[in-house]
Fold this protein.
Amino acid sequence: MVRVLVLLAAVLIASNAMAPDAWAQAAPKTTAPAPAPQVAPKAPAPAPQVTPKATPPATAATPLPPAVIAIVDVAQVRANSLAAKDIQRQMAAIQEVYSVEISKLEDQLRAREQELQRQQAILAPEALAQRRREFETAVDRAQRLVEERNRTLDRLFNEAMSKVTAAIVTTLGDLQRERGFNMVLDRNVVLVPAPGLDLTADALARVDQRLPTVAVTLPPEGR
């Protein structure tokens, strides 16, 4: 440690003894930096020329044809057609079959309920509770059967009447080609029809000729 301090002191004394000129000679010479080369700014590139698209000339709208109107009471044709009446007759027969079936089932359930009431005094509580559960299960099964029969009736009626509707549409197409009208209005939306525009009678006669009857077939599982 003493040796290091002595050496430092010697260095300090020697540096103090040097003249300013010596510091100037010992100091490295600094050279002035060379001037940076001048770069001329580049001229901005010209913007790309966008050629506007030519708009096509406006075409004249196609004129609409004059309206030639016919009036038809579609609901009356559907209800009074021979096919619709035949469907109603068949649906009534099927409904009668279902009604007899449900009536027998109701009689059976009513008899079971009365028997259950008579057995309340003689059956043990556990046996009575079991009989009640069996009876409630039978009632639920009968209710599901009634709902199934109603769905079957609705499906059969809708399928049959859809054929009547198709016959009406086809008939109106035939009348359109023969009479030359291009628009059909329902009678229910026309307050005061002009004479000669109502083709309901003609449409009904054509539908009866085209579709006098529609078979309503009860599926085997529906019985």
About this structure: Residues 69-222 form one domain. Residues 125-179 form the longest helix (55 residues). The radius of gyration is 53 Å.
